[in-house]
Structures are given as structure tokens and as C-alpha cells.
Amino acid sequence: MRGTDYVFEPGLPAGIPVAGTRKLFPVHRVYCVGRNYAAHAVEMGHDPDKEPPFFFQKNPDNLVADGRFPYPPASSDVHHEIEMLVALKSGGRDIPAEKALDCVYGYGVALDMTRRDLQAKAKEQGRPWEVAKAFEASAPCSPLVAATAIGHPAAGAIWLDVNGKRRQSGDLNQMIWKVPEMISYLSGLFTLMPGDVILSGTPAGVGAVERGDRLRGHIDGIGDIEVDVV
Question: How far apart are CA 50 and CA 146, in angstroms?
């Protein structure tokens, strides 16, 4: 707020690089859709045919684009989850699905890194997932590419290699809830804003990483991500 004296100088907003420019996309909130690929839902012990979409959140500054993932404390079982990132340039409430893509600025490749052992404990105790999902640097991502340049990918390969071996493989057309449906559903729960980011779910094959691993992910039509676990 102009003219406001803060008790200390506020930090800069979190941002994601935009490919081919010196600009940053300012991040407002990060929403993650859970179990959005049927095969992944099954591998996690759930029936995808019986569940409406559900969401959890990460923090804006969990998004990092420096190619490094510091292995976090308090866990010995950290898993990779490759996902398409959807970045919004506008928002609102109760957005119709047929208008939802008008809100999208662009897309990226992201990893939803998860402290699986802490998540399992939280599930057992009926507690929130933040300790498992919203820790520092838990969302490595690629630079964004604008929808004006690539359109709105609805199909295409999504995969992740760990040390050159394929771990996850799927297709964007396998998402249970498509991007317009995600945006529309979320806007019935929250007032979506410019700068909001959605991580759209992961295909099957999630697994543990170790210090020294190199992760390489790809989504057709969007790009690649390379991350070193340090």
C-alpha cells in the first residue's frame, strides 16, 4: 500500500521466468490438484472413478527455477511427481469451463516434490499435508511459455527420467479433470487472481529420489526441466 510503513522491508514477490524474455511471472497462490491421472490414483490406493477433484496448496516461493532441489530435512523418502504447470493472467469467481482458458497466461513443466513418509503419517492422523508438500524448493519448475505462442496443450507426452531411466510416463489427455474444468471448479471455491498457478497432477510412476540424482522431465509442446538433487 502506497505510503505504508512496514515493520520491516517486505520481500520481493515470488516469480517464474518467462522463456525468451527477461520478465518474471509474479506468483499469487499455488493450487495443486491431487490424483488427476487414473493410473496414479490407483498406485496410491484410490478409485479414480469415485472422487471429485481435490486440491492442496504450496507456497508461492516453493516454486524455483534454478535447476536445484535441496533434499529436505525431516524425511528419508522424498518422491518426484512430474506435472504441467498452468499460470493464470486473470481470474474471478464461478468461471464457466468454456471461458476458463481465457484466464491462462501460459504453461510450464514442474515437479511436485513430496516428503512421502510425512504425507503418509499425516494421512494416518487425518492431518493436513503442508509438511509433506509445502516445504522449501518443493516445486522446481521450468520457465513459462505463453499460450499465445503454443496454444493450450490438451494432449501430448509427459515423462520423467531419473539418472537417464524412465520413471514416469503418460499423456496430458489422460488427465481426469482437464484444465478448463480445474479452473472452473477452483473458481467455485476461491476467488482466482492474476498470478495464480495450478499444478495439474502427475501420471503413474512416482518414486523416491536420492542426493546426487539428476531428474529430467518433458511435456510435448511445452518444454523440458532438468533438476539436480543436492
Answer: 34
